[in-house]
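Hi team,

As requested, here is the filled-out complex form for the glycine run. I kept the field names the same as last time so the parser does not choke. Let me know if anything looks off before we queue the next batch.

— J.
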Amino acid sequence: MFDAAFEELPEKPLAISKAVYRQRQQRLLSQFDVGDLIVISALPEARRSNDVHYPYRSSSDMLYMCGWTDPESTLMFYYEDGQWISHLFVQPKDTLMEIWEGRRPGVEGALKDWAVDRADSSDETLIHLEHLLESSVRVHVRTGINPKIDSLVKSAVEKRDRKRQHFGSGPISVEDPSRRIAEMRLRKSEEEILQMRYAAEVSSKAHELAMAASKDGIHEFQIQSIIEGFFVYGGTSGWAYPSIVGCGENATILHYTVNNSPCDSNEIILIDAGAEYEGYAADITRSWPIGGTFSEAQKEIYEIVLDAQEKAIDACRVGNPYNEPHEVARKALAEGLVRLGVIKQSVEEALDMESGELKKWYMHNTGHWLGLDVHDVGTYKPDGTPRLLEAGMVLTVEPGLYFGAWRPDVDCPQRYANIGIRIEDDVLVTDGDPDVLTGSCPKTIDDIERIVGSL
Ligand code: GLY
Ligand code: MN
Ligand code: MN
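And here is what came back:
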Protein backbone atom coordinates (compact mmCIF):
# COMPACT_ATOMS: atom_id res chain seq x y z
CA MET A 1 0.00 0.00 0.00
CA PHE A 2 3.02 2.31 0.39
CA ASP A 3 4.62 1.93 -3.03
CA ALA A 4 2.92 4.82 -4.82
CA ALA A 5 3.60 7.22 -1.94
CA PHE A 6 7.19 6.04 -1.74
CA GLU A 7 7.69 6.72 -5.45
CA GLU A 8 6.69 10.34 -4.89
CA LEU A 9 9.32 10.96 -2.22
CA PRO A 10 12.34 13.04 -3.21
CA GLU A 11 15.78 11.44 -3.39
CA LYS A 12 17.35 10.87 -0.02
CA PRO A 13 19.94 13.56 0.64
CA LEU A 14 23.62 12.78 1.06
CA ALA A 15 24.68 12.28 4.66
CA ILE A 16 26.37 15.22 6.39
CA SER A 17 30.00 15.09 5.25
CA LYS A 18 33.16 14.88 7.34
CA ALA A 19 34.10 18.34 6.05
CA VAL A 20 30.90 19.81 7.50
CA TYR A 21 31.56 18.22 10.91
CA ARG A 22 35.08 19.64 10.80
CA GLN A 23 33.69 23.12 10.06
CA ARG A 24 31.31 22.83 13.01
CA GLN A 25 34.13 21.74 15.31
CA GLN A 26 36.30 24.64 14.15
CA ARG A 27 33.49 27.12 14.73
CA LEU A 28 32.91 25.79 18.21
CA LEU A 29 36.59 25.66 19.12
CA SER A 30 37.23 29.19 17.89
CA GLN A 31 35.20 30.25 20.94
CA PHE A 32 37.55 28.52 23.41
CA ASP A 33 41.08 29.09 24.69
CA VAL A 34 44.20 27.06 25.22
CA GLY A 35 43.69 25.31 28.56
CA ASP A 36 40.03 24.56 27.86
CA LEU A 37 38.87 20.97 27.83
CA ILE A 38 35.50 20.38 26.18
CA VAL A 39 33.69 17.12 26.87
CA ILE A 40 30.59 16.07 24.93
CA SER A 41 28.96 13.05 26.53
CA ALA A 42 26.35 10.78 25.03
CA LEU A 43 23.34 9.63 26.97
CA PRO A 44 23.65 6.15 28.50
CA GLU A 45 21.57 3.24 27.24
CA ALA A 46 18.29 2.79 29.11
CA ARG A 47 16.81 -0.56 30.06
CA ARG A 48 13.24 -1.26 29.02
CA SER A 49 12.77 -4.67 30.64
CA ASN A 50 15.00 -7.48 31.91
CA ASP A 51 17.67 -7.66 29.20
CA VAL A 52 15.95 -5.46 26.61
CA HIS A 53 17.04 -1.85 26.07
CA TYR A 54 15.16 1.04 24.51
CA PRO A 55 16.39 1.66 20.97
CA TYR A 56 19.49 3.77 21.46
CA ARG A 57 19.54 7.38 20.36
CA SER A 58 22.65 9.41 21.10
CA SER A 59 22.57 12.94 22.49
CA SER A 60 21.92 15.60 19.89
CA ASP A 61 25.14 17.49 20.67
CA MET A 62 27.14 14.33 19.93
CA LEU A 63 25.26 13.90 16.65
CA TYR A 64 25.82 17.54 15.79
CA MET A 65 29.54 17.65 16.55
CA CYS A 66 30.61 14.39 14.88
CA GLY A 67 27.62 12.25 13.83
CA TRP A 68 28.51 9.28 16.03
CA THR A 69 25.33 7.32 16.77
CA ASP A 70 26.38 4.29 18.86
CA PRO A 71 26.17 4.05 22.67
CA GLU A 72 28.96 4.68 25.18
CA SER A 73 30.68 7.42 23.24
CA THR A 74 32.40 10.54 24.54
CA LEU A 75 33.94 13.31 22.46
CA MET A 76 36.69 15.52 23.87
CA PHE A 77 38.42 18.56 22.45
CA TYR A 78 41.69 19.85 23.86
CA TYR A 79 44.60 21.97 22.72
CA GLU A 80 47.93 20.22 22.27
CA ASP A 81 51.16 21.26 20.56
CA GLY A 82 49.63 24.31 18.93
CA GLN A 83 46.42 22.75 17.67
CA TRP A 84 43.00 21.56 18.72
CA ILE A 85 42.55 17.80 18.89
CA SER A 86 39.21 16.02 18.59
CA HIS A 87 39.27 12.71 20.41
CA LEU A 88 36.38 10.24 20.27
CA PHE A 89 35.93 7.31 22.63
CA VAL A 90 33.83 4.48 21.22
CA GLN A 91 32.76 0.93 21.87
CA PRO A 92 35.70 -1.20 20.69
CA LYS A 93 35.30 -3.93 18.13
CA ASP A 94 34.24 -7.16 19.82
CA THR A 95 33.39 -10.15 17.65
CA LEU A 96 31.14 -11.84 20.20
CA MET A 97 29.16 -8.67 20.87
CA GLU A 98 28.97 -7.98 17.14
CA ILE A 99 27.61 -11.49 16.47
CA TRP A 100 24.82 -10.85 18.97
CA GLU A 101 24.08 -7.16 18.61
CA GLY A 102 25.42 -5.86 15.33
CA ARG A 103 28.55 -4.54 13.73
CA ARG A 104 30.59 -1.80 15.36
CA PRO A 105 32.84 0.66 13.57
CA GLY A 106 35.20 0.46 16.53
CA VAL A 107 38.28 2.60 16.99
CA GLU A 108 39.57 1.84 13.49
CA GLY A 109 36.26 2.76 11.86
CA ALA A 110 36.02 5.97 13.87
CA LEU A 111 39.46 7.08 12.76
CA LYS A 112 38.82 6.19 9.14
CA ASP A 113 35.30 7.46 8.55
CA TRP A 114 34.54 10.08 11.20
CA ALA A 115 35.76 13.64 11.54
CA VAL A 116 38.06 13.07 14.51
CA ASP A 117 41.82 13.19 15.01
CA ARG A 118 42.07 10.45 17.60
CA ALA A 119 39.92 7.57 18.71
CA ASP A 120 40.17 5.14 21.58
CA SER A 121 38.12 2.50 23.27
CA SER A 122 35.37 3.66 25.59
CA ASP A 123 37.06 1.53 28.27
CA GLU A 124 39.76 4.20 28.34
CA THR A 125 37.50 7.24 28.57
CA LEU A 126 37.95 7.88 32.26
CA ILE A 127 41.72 7.29 32.29
CA HIS A 128 42.21 9.79 29.47
CA LEU A 129 39.81 12.22 31.05
CA GLU A 130 41.64 12.11 34.35
CA HIS A 131 44.89 12.84 32.60
CA LEU A 132 43.42 15.66 30.51
CA LEU A 133 41.77 17.21 33.55
CA GLU A 134 45.16 17.52 35.21
CA SER A 135 46.47 19.73 32.46
CA SER A 136 43.34 21.80 31.81
CA VAL A 137 42.41 25.17 33.32
CA ARG A 138 38.71 25.11 32.60
CA VAL A 139 36.52 22.15 31.79
CA HIS A 140 33.37 22.55 29.71
CA VAL A 141 30.93 19.72 30.20
CA ARG A 142 27.19 19.43 30.45
CA THR A 143 26.64 17.66 33.73
CA GLY A 144 23.76 15.25 34.32
CA ILE A 145 24.38 13.13 31.23
CA ASN A 146 27.15 10.74 32.29
CA PRO A 147 27.45 10.38 36.09
CA LYS A 148 30.95 8.85 35.92
CA ILE A 149 32.27 11.82 33.99
CA ASP A 150 30.47 14.20 36.35
CA SER A 151 32.07 12.72 39.44
CA LEU A 152 35.56 12.71 37.92
CA VAL A 153 35.23 16.35 36.89
CA LYS A 154 33.82 17.30 40.28
CA SER A 155 36.68 15.70 42.17
CA ALA A 156 39.26 17.27 39.82
CA VAL A 157 37.84 20.73 40.47
CA GLU A 158 37.55 20.20 44.20
CA LYS A 159 41.08 18.87 44.54
CA ARG A 160 43.23 21.08 46.69
CA ASP A 161 46.48 19.15 46.63
CA ARG A 162 50.11 20.25 46.86
CA LYS A 163 50.66 19.70 43.16
CA ARG A 164 48.02 22.23 42.30
CA GLN A 165 49.38 24.66 44.85
CA HIS A 166 52.88 24.37 43.37
CA PHE A 167 52.16 24.04 39.68
CA GLY A 168 48.67 25.48 39.31
CA SER A 169 47.56 22.44 37.33
CA GLY A 170 44.00 21.10 37.25
CA PRO A 171 40.72 22.75 36.30
CA ILE A 172 39.50 25.64 38.38
CA SER A 173 36.03 25.92 36.89
CA VAL A 174 33.34 23.87 35.20
CA GLU A 175 31.18 25.45 32.56
CA ASP A 176 28.36 24.19 30.36
CA PRO A 177 29.25 24.32 26.63
CA SER A 178 25.73 23.52 25.50
CA ARG A 179 24.60 27.11 25.10
CA ARG A 180 27.38 27.78 22.58
CA ILE A 181 26.49 24.61 20.69
CA ALA A 182 22.82 25.57 20.85
CA GLU A 183 23.60 28.92 19.20
CA MET A 184 25.16 27.02 16.32
CA ARG A 185 22.37 24.44 16.12
CA LEU A 186 19.74 27.18 16.03
CA ARG A 187 20.88 28.31 12.58
CA LYS A 188 20.60 25.43 10.15
CA SER A 189 23.06 24.99 7.30
CA GLU A 190 22.05 23.92 3.80
CA GLU A 191 23.12 20.35 4.56
CA GLU A 192 20.89 20.25 7.61
CA ILE A 193 17.93 21.70 5.73
CA LEU A 194 18.21 18.84 3.22
CA GLN A 195 17.92 16.27 6.01
CA MET A 196 15.00 18.17 7.53
CA ARG A 197 13.23 18.41 4.19
CA TYR A 198 13.42 14.64 3.80
CA ALA A 199 12.02 14.04 7.30
CA ALA A 200 9.28 16.56 6.46
CA GLU A 201 8.42 14.95 3.12
CA VAL A 202 8.15 11.44 4.57
CA SER A 203 6.02 12.76 7.42
CA SER A 204 3.76 14.71 5.05
CA LYS A 205 3.13 11.63 2.93
CA ALA A 206 2.47 9.56 6.06
CA HIS A 207 -0.28 11.97 7.11
CA GLU A 208 -1.76 11.90 3.62
CA LEU A 209 -1.85 8.09 3.68
CA ALA A 210 -3.55 8.18 7.08
CA MET A 211 -6.16 10.58 5.70
CA ALA A 212 -6.82 8.26 2.78
CA ALA A 213 -7.20 5.23 5.08
CA SER A 214 -9.62 6.90 7.51
CA LYS A 215 -13.05 5.34 7.76
CA ASP A 216 -15.82 4.83 10.27
CA GLY A 217 -14.85 2.36 13.01
CA ILE A 218 -11.10 2.41 12.41
CA HIS A 219 -9.10 2.50 15.63
CA GLU A 220 -6.61 5.22 16.50
CA PHE A 221 -3.81 2.65 16.70
CA GLN A 222 -4.62 1.41 13.20
CA ILE A 223 -4.14 4.90 11.83
CA GLN A 224 -1.01 5.23 13.97
CA SER A 225 0.38 2.06 12.38
CA ILE A 226 -0.04 3.52 8.90
CA ILE A 227 1.72 6.73 9.85
CA GLU A 228 4.60 5.07 11.68
CA GLY A 229 4.77 2.25 9.12
CA PHE A 230 5.41 4.79 6.40
CA PHE A 231 8.01 6.57 8.50
CA VAL A 232 10.01 3.35 8.42
CA TYR A 233 9.09 2.47 4.82
CA GLY A 234 10.36 5.89 3.80
CA GLY A 235 13.77 5.08 5.25
CA THR A 236 13.66 7.22 8.38
CA SER A 237 14.53 5.86 11.80
CA GLY A 238 10.86 6.08 12.85
CA TRP A 239 9.08 8.63 14.99
CA ALA A 240 10.84 11.69 16.38
CA TYR A 241 8.43 11.73 19.33
CA PRO A 242 5.55 9.44 20.33
CA SER A 243 2.66 9.91 17.91
CA ILE A 244 -0.48 11.61 19.15
CA VAL A 245 -3.50 10.04 17.43
CA GLY A 246 -6.71 11.18 19.08
CA CYS A 247 -10.27 11.00 17.85
CA GLY A 248 -13.30 12.84 19.28
CA GLU A 249 -12.68 14.02 22.83
CA ASN A 250 -9.14 12.56 22.69
CA ALA A 251 -8.34 15.28 20.15
CA THR A 252 -8.79 17.80 22.96
CA ILE A 253 -6.03 16.23 25.10
CA LEU A 254 -2.84 17.94 24.04
CA HIS A 255 -0.37 15.11 24.64
CA TYR A 256 -2.73 12.14 24.24
CA THR A 257 -0.69 9.05 23.30
CA VAL A 258 -2.88 6.12 24.42
CA ASN A 259 -4.19 5.85 20.85
CA ASN A 260 -6.60 2.97 21.55
CA SER A 261 -10.12 4.24 20.80
CA PRO A 262 -12.34 3.45 17.83
CA CYS A 263 -13.18 6.42 15.62
CA ASP A 264 -16.62 7.54 14.58
CA SER A 265 -17.31 9.07 11.18
CA ASN A 266 -18.64 12.29 12.70
CA GLU A 267 -15.54 12.84 14.84
CA ILE A 268 -12.44 14.87 14.16
CA ILE A 269 -9.16 13.02 14.48
CA LEU A 270 -6.08 15.00 15.46
CA ILE A 271 -2.71 13.50 14.57
CA ASP A 272 0.56 15.01 15.71
CA ALA A 273 3.31 12.79 14.32
CA GLY A 274 6.70 13.34 12.73
CA ALA A 275 9.59 11.21 11.56
CA GLU A 276 13.26 11.48 12.45
CA TYR A 277 15.80 11.33 9.66
CA GLU A 278 19.55 11.34 10.33
CA GLY A 279 18.66 12.65 13.77
CA TYR A 280 16.51 15.54 12.47
CA ALA A 281 12.86 15.79 13.46
CA ALA A 282 9.75 16.68 11.53
CA ASP A 283 6.73 17.77 13.56
CA ILE A 284 3.35 17.83 11.80
CA THR A 285 -0.21 18.02 13.05
CA ARG A 286 -3.27 17.59 10.90
CA SER A 287 -6.90 17.29 11.94
CA TRP A 288 -9.67 15.88 9.77
CA PRO A 289 -13.15 14.39 9.95
CA ILE A 290 -13.03 10.59 9.97
CA GLY A 291 -16.04 10.44 7.65
CA GLY A 292 -14.42 12.74 5.08
CA THR A 293 -16.83 15.68 5.33
CA PHE A 294 -16.57 18.50 7.86
CA SER A 295 -19.83 19.35 9.64
CA GLU A 296 -20.71 23.06 9.62
CA ALA A 297 -19.54 23.39 13.23
CA GLN A 298 -16.26 21.57 12.55
CA LYS A 299 -15.71 23.72 9.48
CA GLU A 300 -16.21 26.92 11.49
CA ILE A 301 -13.47 25.97 13.93
CA TYR A 302 -11.16 24.53 11.26
CA GLU A 303 -11.34 27.72 9.19
CA ILE A 304 -10.39 29.86 12.18
CA VAL A 305 -7.38 27.68 13.02
CA LEU A 306 -6.24 27.53 9.39
CA ASP A 307 -6.55 31.29 9.04
CA ALA A 308 -4.54 31.78 12.24
CA GLN A 309 -1.90 29.33 11.05
CA GLU A 310 -1.50 30.91 7.63
CA LYS A 311 -1.15 34.36 9.16
CA ALA A 312 1.36 33.06 11.70
CA ILE A 313 3.41 31.34 8.98
CA ASP A 314 3.51 34.62 7.10
CA ALA A 315 5.00 36.22 10.23
CA CYS A 316 8.02 33.88 10.13
CA ARG A 317 10.24 36.48 8.54
CA VAL A 318 13.74 37.76 9.13
CA GLY A 319 13.74 40.52 11.75
CA ASN A 320 10.44 39.60 13.39
CA PRO A 321 10.61 38.62 17.06
CA TYR A 322 10.39 34.83 17.43
CA ASN A 323 7.03 35.20 19.19
CA GLU A 324 5.43 37.33 16.45
CA PRO A 325 3.77 34.21 14.91
CA HIS A 326 2.30 33.42 18.34
CA GLU A 327 0.87 36.90 18.76
CA VAL A 328 -0.51 36.90 15.21
CA ALA A 329 -2.12 33.46 15.73
CA ARG A 330 -3.62 34.42 19.08
CA LYS A 331 -5.20 37.51 17.55
CA ALA A 332 -6.70 35.58 14.64
CA LEU A 333 -8.05 32.88 16.96
CA ALA A 334 -9.56 35.46 19.30
CA GLU A 335 -11.18 37.32 16.40
CA GLY A 336 -12.66 34.07 15.13
CA LEU A 337 -14.08 33.01 18.48
CA VAL A 338 -15.52 36.46 19.16
CA ARG A 339 -17.13 36.37 15.70
CA LEU A 340 -18.68 32.96 16.45
CA GLY A 341 -19.95 34.21 19.81
CA VAL A 342 -17.93 31.60 21.74
CA ILE A 343 -16.12 34.45 23.48
CA LYS A 344 -18.29 37.29 24.65
CA GLN A 345 -15.42 39.66 25.37
CA SER A 346 -13.84 42.11 22.92
CA VAL A 347 -10.86 40.75 20.99
CA GLU A 348 -8.56 42.85 23.13
CA GLU A 349 -10.12 41.51 26.33
CA ALA A 350 -10.01 37.94 25.03
CA LEU A 351 -6.26 38.23 24.51
CA ASP A 352 -5.53 39.42 28.06
CA MET A 353 -3.22 36.88 29.70
CA GLU A 354 -5.02 37.14 33.05
CA SER A 355 -8.71 37.61 32.32
CA GLY A 356 -8.92 36.82 28.61
CA GLU A 357 -11.04 33.85 27.55
CA LEU A 358 -8.90 32.74 24.62
CA LYS A 359 -6.69 30.67 26.90
CA LYS A 360 -9.68 28.45 27.80
CA TRP A 361 -9.61 27.10 24.25
CA TYR A 362 -6.01 27.77 23.24
CA MET A 363 -3.60 26.98 26.03
CA HIS A 364 -0.21 26.40 24.40
CA ASN A 365 2.40 28.31 22.46
CA THR A 366 2.26 28.57 18.68
CA GLY A 367 5.65 27.02 18.06
CA HIS A 368 9.16 26.06 19.01
CA TRP A 369 12.56 25.65 17.39
CA LEU A 370 12.91 22.41 15.44
CA GLY A 371 16.05 20.45 14.55
CA LEU A 372 17.91 17.52 16.07
CA ASP A 373 15.53 17.79 18.99
CA VAL A 374 11.83 18.17 18.31
CA HIS A 375 11.78 20.95 20.87
CA ASP A 376 15.13 22.13 19.69
CA VAL A 377 17.76 24.04 21.60
CA GLY A 378 18.29 27.79 21.44
CA THR A 379 17.30 30.44 23.95
CA TYR A 380 14.13 32.28 23.06
CA LYS A 381 14.98 35.43 25.00
CA PRO A 382 18.79 35.54 25.18
CA ASP A 383 18.96 38.87 26.98
CA GLY A 384 15.44 38.95 28.31
CA THR A 385 13.92 40.20 25.07
CA PRO A 386 12.54 38.00 22.28
CA ARG A 387 15.17 36.88 19.79
CA LEU A 388 14.71 38.17 16.24
CA LEU A 389 14.25 35.58 13.51
CA GLU A 390 17.18 34.96 11.15
CA ALA A 391 17.47 33.08 7.87
CA GLY A 392 18.23 29.42 8.60
CA MET A 393 16.14 29.15 11.73
CA VAL A 394 13.41 26.50 11.66
CA LEU A 395 10.34 26.73 13.85
CA THR A 396 6.97 25.06 14.04
CA VAL A 397 3.71 26.95 13.63
CA GLU A 398 0.94 25.10 15.41
CA PRO A 399 -2.13 26.99 16.58
CA GLY A 400 -5.16 25.02 17.72
CA LEU A 401 -8.54 25.17 19.40
CA TYR A 402 -9.73 22.51 21.82
CA PHE A 403 -13.31 22.19 23.02
CA GLY A 404 -13.15 19.38 25.55
CA ALA A 405 -16.77 18.78 26.65
CA TRP A 406 -15.36 16.56 29.42
CA ARG A 407 -13.58 19.47 31.10
CA PRO A 408 -15.06 20.54 34.44
CA ASP A 409 -13.19 23.87 34.36
CA VAL A 410 -15.03 25.39 31.37
CA ASP A 411 -18.51 25.67 29.94
CA CYS A 412 -17.94 24.06 26.56
CA PRO A 413 -20.29 25.35 23.84
CA GLN A 414 -22.50 22.39 22.85
CA ARG A 415 -22.14 23.15 19.14
CA TYR A 416 -18.38 22.57 19.32
CA ALA A 417 -18.35 19.77 21.89
CA ASN A 418 -15.21 17.62 21.62
CA ILE A 419 -13.83 19.31 18.54
CA GLY A 420 -10.06 19.50 18.80
CA ILE A 421 -8.15 21.01 15.92
CA ARG A 422 -4.47 21.80 15.57
CA ILE A 423 -2.62 22.48 12.33
CA GLU A 424 1.17 22.32 12.54
CA ASP A 425 3.81 22.94 9.92
CA ASP A 426 7.59 23.27 9.99
CA VAL A 427 8.82 26.59 8.67
CA LEU A 428 12.28 27.61 7.51
CA VAL A 429 12.98 31.33 7.83
CA THR A 430 14.63 32.60 4.65
CA ASP A 431 15.71 35.96 3.28
CA GLY A 432 12.52 35.84 1.22
CA ASP A 433 9.17 34.24 1.95
CA PRO A 434 8.82 31.61 4.68
CA ASP A 435 9.64 28.15 3.33
CA VAL A 436 7.15 25.58 4.65
CA LEU A 437 9.12 22.32 4.77
CA THR A 438 5.91 20.38 5.36
CA GLY A 439 4.04 22.30 2.65
CA SER A 440 3.14 19.17 0.67
CA CYS A 441 0.97 17.85 3.52
CA PRO A 442 -2.68 18.61 2.63
CA LYS A 443 -4.51 21.07 4.88
CA THR A 444 -7.18 22.97 2.96
CA ILE A 445 -10.75 21.84 3.56
CA ASP A 446 -11.13 20.95 -0.13
CA ASP A 447 -7.97 18.83 -0.23
CA ILE A 448 -8.80 17.06 3.02
CA GLU A 449 -12.36 16.25 1.94
CA ARG A 450 -11.04 14.92 -1.38
CA ILE A 451 -8.39 12.71 0.24
CA VAL A 452 -10.03 11.35 3.40
CA GLY A 453 -11.39 7.85 2.80
CA SER A 454 -10.08 7.72 -0.77
CA LEU A 455 -8.08 4.50 -0.27
N1 GLY B 1 4.80 17.18 18.84
C1 GLY B 1 5.09 18.02 19.92
C2 GLY B 1 4.81 19.41 19.60
O1 GLY B 1 4.09 19.68 18.66
O2 GLY B 1 5.32 20.31 20.20
MN1 MN C 1 5.44 21.06 17.69
MN1 MN D 1 3.68 18.42 17.05
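Two things worth flagging: Residues 190-213 form the longest helix (24 residues). The longest strand covers residues 83-90.

Thanks,
J.
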